[in-house]
Amino acid sequence: MDELGTNTYHSQNMANSSYAPLFETKKAKGSLLYKLFATSIFVGIIFIWVYRATNVAENGRLVWIGMFGAELWFGLYWVLSQAVHWNLVYRHTFKDRLSQRYENELPGVDIFVCTADPVIEPPVMVINTVLSVMAYEYPPEKLSVYLSDDAGSDLTFYALLEASDFAKHWIPYCKKFKVEPRSPEAYLRLESVEMEASQAQQFSSIKKLYEGMENRIDLAKKLGKISKNTLFEHRGFSKWDSFSSRGDHDAILQILIDGRDAEAKDVEGCRLPTLVYLAREKRPQHFHNFKAGAMNALIRVSSEISNGPIILNVDCDMYSNNSESIRDALCFFLDEEKGHAVAFVQFPQNFHNLTKNELYGGSLKVITMVEFHGLDGYGGPLYIGSGCFHRRDTLCGRKWTKGSMFGWKESISPRTGENVVELEERVKEVANCTFEKNTQWGKEMGLKYGSPVEDVITGLSIQCRGWKSIYFNPEREGFLGFATTTLDQTLVQHKRWSEGDLQILLSQYSPICYGFGRIKFGLLMGYCFYCLWAPNCFATLYYSIIPSLYLLRGISLFPQVSSMWLLPFAYVIIAEHVYGLAEYLWSGGTVLGWWNEQRIWLYKRTTSYLFACLDTFFKLIGFSDSGFVISTKVSDEDVWQRYEQEKMEFGVTSTMFIILSSLAMLNIFCLIGMVMRENFVLETMALQILWCGVLVLINLPLYNAAFFRKDKGRIPSSVMLKSSLLALSLCTCFAFL
Ligand SMILES: O=c1ccn([C@@H]2O[C@H](COP(=O)(O)OP(=O)(O)O[C@H]3O[C@H](CO)[C@@H](O)[C@H](O)[C@H]3O)[C@@H](O)[C@H]2O)c(=O)[nH]1
Ligand SMILES: [Mn+2]
Predict the structure, then answer these.
(1) Measured from the CB, is residue 290 less than 6 Å from ligand 1?
(2) Domain that holds residue 223
(3) Which residues of 234-247 are buried (b: 16+ CB within 10 A; e: fewer)?
(4) Whether residues 477 and 562 fall in one domain
(5) TM spans, by residue (predicted)?
(6) Are residues 558 and 409 in the same domain?
(7) Is residue 8 predicted with pLDDT exceeding 60?
(8) 493 occurs within a structural domain
(9) CB neighbour class for 276 (10 Å; exposed up to 12, middle 13-18, buried from 19)
(10) b/e 390-408 (16+ beta carbons within 10 angstroms → b)
(11) How many Å apart are CA 627 and CA 629, to the nearest integer?
(12) Active site annotation includes 261
């Protein structure tokens, strides 16, 4: 049946009973119970539809149809969501078997770190990520780390230069004392590190070295330039001579540590991993395709230098938190029975700066702990960028064919005779703007261009070529990054994601048309579940405006309390939310965290998703182009404080905030207006009042930020003025016209 499924393995050539797999797959427990529960919800949904279809109100037919439309959407979307809940699987690896069988022939691994802006992605953070991946528990001569710098910043280069020195102390220290995590900053931040006297001594000297390095980088940043001495000392800086701006410069390629060189050793005399800095060529007249462009340049450059058959990509904030991750990933690729079909292994994206009740839903808990396990049950998760291991050949467009094996042992290492300077000069060419002209790069080769979520569309096309993917969610998290710390950043990030996903649905790689027959139907539904994030805005907006407004007219849009029709509404709403809460708690969250998640769910749907739909529409008719707003990975002291206190951060004036506060004001006006009506009947309006009340309750932090808070994170009064006026006039018109 399924190459990667849970079925007991069976094959002629391996029918040897001593064969032990490198990984195993387990199905979630209680799935029958879940299926029964889901079926009961579905019955409830059908009853709601029947109610809408058979009880059309006398006055307000149109509004009624609208309600029906919204509920039809919610119901169908719920059906899609079953794809990510129905069939959860969990993976487990056997790393000891991997070492037993393959320790001496492990494949080369090339690690790509991407950065694009030294201000919102500070170089110190970037090199911490680089150092963490250089210190993987893996033979250093098989490890190569490439930093792509889309800003072409000499400050970042300088930081990397410092890191290449510090690595000589850091890597042996990590390996000797088996420390975790291997990002120096994260490690030194740990509160209690228990250690013996011998380690304690080295610990303090490492700490001093690190702090010295950090200070030098900070100083260079403050001065805005690198000291003359350093500039003279390293030939690399001369490559900035022809640099005019981040969008206009030659390709800069610098091999800081040449792993081929047997002399490149750490302080204990062990070999070091290769370390390369790359700023691909940028010219104003050539579009650079954001991260996808950077990744493709890296694929080409690395193929000339180390050509590792396995590629790992991390964002510059996502440091390695688990030094065994490469070996975990290899258990899937090298498994004799099932490995040949695996194109990529995606780890979850976890974060180190979350607060207890996650005001912005930063951890994406349910996606990480449930939904992706569900996708894995149908052929594998989406490729979501950071924390993903790929097979190089697949990423470059190779199709999967039955019976083919993963020939990592035959992979050709590039020429070794050349000296570093010659090598750099030659390889630089493949990072030029014009290199991709009239090639398949960005289409059939490498990451795909033209989508704000280059990762998802690339992963989909790989799966459509017959490959499987694996979701691996180990107990000790593999990668930790920086979650957004303000509401604005969160909404902007989700706009990019939902917009990208929606555009995939409309692209030539649409999971519906292109994916049909190529991937499993469950996976196809799973893709649609994400691709249809954005259109959720319409039903949600309708549901959070119309019922409240109709309170003002005293018109009921839901069954009255004594009616039997109330039952399906009550059941579906209560059961789904209780289940959602349980799922959230089970994923490690708190009750308040769940409540916050409901709020951010509402906010995303009414702003990010709406803007995603609008922008997609404008793009379709040729009016706009989607960009890539890079997420900020630092925050000011006072913003950070409010983040830690879980106070919602508004602060800036944005159209998204105008929408949010208009909706919040509209609902409170409607509630007040309704109470002031003399002749309202609780019996007929109960559910509607309750719903409006919930909308007001969930917006409490917003009212607080508008009317009571005095700090900089409050809602600017101009925003409040506009939205209050807007909401008030809407309510007045509606009540009296
Ligand atoms: O022109 C660009 C823009 C971005 N990046 C890098 O891309 C990464 C992701 O950017 P970020 O702003 O952090 O976006 P996120 O939304 O946090 O990233 C998620 O979503 C992206 C797709 O939207 C994926 O590319 C990422 O891997 C995934 O972690 C960062 O390392 C950037 O430095 C570039 O290299 N060049
Ligand atoms: Mn990020």
Answers:
(1) yes
(2) 93-483
(3) eebbebbeebeebe
(4) no
(5) 32-50, 62-80, 524-545, 650-673, 685-703
(6) no
(7) no
(8) no
(9) buried
(10) bbbebbbebebeeeeebeb
(11) 6
(12) no
Query: Cα(128)–Cα(352) distance, rounded to whole angstroms?
Result: 14
Find out whether 356 is annotated in a ligand binding site: no
Residue 279 lies in a domain: yes
Structural tokens at position 517: 């027959």
Return the best residue to mutate from 111, 112, 113, 114 for the ligand 1 pocket (most ligand atoms within 8 A of CB): 114
121 is in an annotated binding site: yes
Q: Closest Cα to atom 4, ligand 1: which residue? A: 291
Percent of the chain with pLDDT over 70: 97
Cα 696 to averaged position of ligand 2 atoms, centre (Å): 32
4 pLDDT band, cuts 50/70/90, is low
Report DSSP letters for 295-357, one per residue: HHHHHHHHHHHT--SEEEEEETT-EES-TTHHHHHHHHHS-TTTGGGEEEEEPP-EESS--TT
**Is 70 exceeded by the pLDDT of residue 680?**
no
Sheet holding 319-320, edge to edge: 319-320, 479-481, 350-351
Strands 388-391 and 342-346: antiparallel
Q: How do beta strands 319-320 and 388-391 pair?
A: unpaired
Q: Atom of ligand 1 at shortest distance to CA of 484?
A: 17
Considering its fold, how many domains does the chain have in total?
Answer: 2
Q: Is residue 544 part of a domain?
A: yes
Q: Are residues 170 and 79 in the same domain?
A: no
Pocket of ligand 1 contains residue 608 by CB under 6 Å: no
d(CA 173, CA 225): 31
Here the CATH number for the domain that contains residue 123 is 3.90.550.10
Do 43 and 108 fall into the same domain?
A: no
Which mutation among 389, 456, 630 tests ligand 1's pocket best, with the greatest number of atoms within 8 A of CB?
630
Ligand 1 neighbour 78 (Cβ under 6 A): no
Residues 444 and 474 grouped into a single domain = yes
Catalytic residue (one of 150, 154, 250, 317): 150
- Taking CA atoms only, the protein residue closest to ligand 1 atom 27 is 385
One domain, residues 105 and 58: no
Residues 76 and 97 grouped into a single domain:
no
Write phi, then psi, for 59 (nearest 5 degrees). -95, 135
Query: Which pLDDT score, from 0 to 100, does residue 17 have?
Result: 53
Q: For 120, list phi and psi in degrees, rounded to 5.
A: -90, -5
351 lines ligand 1 (CB under 6 A): no
Q: Are residues 46 and 111 in the same domain?
A: no
The per-residue pLDDT for range 198-249, each reduced to its tens digit, is 899 999 999 999 999 999 999 999 998 888 888 888 888 999 988 999 999 9
Strand partners, 50: none
Question: What residue's CA is closest to ligand 1, atom 5?
Answer: 291
The last residue of one of the domains, among 431, 459, 483, is 483
Is residue 338 annotated as involved in ligand binding? no
Which ligand number lies closest to the CA of residue 287? 1
Tell me whether residue 625 is annotated as binding.
Answer: no
Last residue of a domain, one of 436, 457, 483: 483
Average pLDDT rounded to a whole number, residues 652-659: 96
- Catalytic member of 317, 328, 335, 455: 455
Would 685 be classed as within a structural domain? yes
Distance in Å, CA 308 to ligand 2 centroid: 25
Is residue 150 part of the annotated active site? The answer reads yes
